[in-house]
Amino acid sequence: MNDVSSVNELKKKIADLEKTVSLLKDGNERLLRLIETVPEGIMIIDAAGKITFVNSTLENIFGFGRSEIIGSNCDDPRWSFQMPGLRENGNNELIFDFIMKTGQAVINKEHLYEISAGNAKIISINASPYFDDTGKIAGVVAAITDITDRNRLSGESIEIRAMLKPYTLADLKQTLENILAKDNN
User: What is the three-class DSSP state of 44?
Assistant: First the structure.
């Protein structure tokens, strides 16, 4: 009787473990789908500075495939983003180095990412440390957004406002009335 109950207990534990594994796999799959569909590029860098994960949006921003990015170091000139003047001597410091040294997040740091001569993107970088079970910084996770078009549209909006600035509201109203009157004739 004791052997039978032990076997049944073991079967129940195995079934519970299989259910837990299945739930974890489902959760991981949903998380991966989420990471792959966000409009920001996601990059994970371990404590040694090695890039361990990127999503498809980041591939598009950088113009390189995962196989070229994953496994490379974050100080690779193709994607070594710097924060101007953060070192004591005034030189630039890698965002990764700053976070690893201070444990502080970096928010909305704009960077001109030069793809090739004469071809560049403006990107915004948000990055923060992630920690291991002991509370030690285990690496950096970064969200990178291509803001080139947003900056271009903002610049165009400023130009339009500058063109309209000399006109009063009455001038604009009269111009609109003239246009509408021409359309009615």
Answer: strand
Same domain, 24 and 46: no
DSSP label of 64:
-
Question: Domain tally for the chain?
Answer: 2
Residues 6+ apart with CB under 8 A from 131: 137, 138
d(Cα 61, Cα 142) in Å, to the nearest integer? 13
What is the H or E stretch that residue 135 is in? Answer: none
Q: Which pTM value belongs to this model?
A: 0.67
* Domain limits for position 31: 1-37
Alpha carbon distance 62, 64 (integer Å): 5
Tell me the C-alpha distance between 82 and 162, whole Å: 34
Q: How far apart are CA 110 and CA 145, in angstroms?
A: 9
Residue 26 lies in a domain: yes
Residue 65 sits in a domain of what CATH number? 3.30.450.20
Averaged pLDDT in 10-residue chunks for the chain of 185 residues: 77 88 86 87 94 93 90 80 50 80 90 71 90 96 89 60 62 76 73
Hey, what are 40's tokens? 């920001």
- Residue bearing tokens 């994960």: 53
Dist CA 161 CA 125 (whole Å): 29
**Residue 29 CB burial class (10 angstroms; 0-12, 13-18, ≥19):** exposed
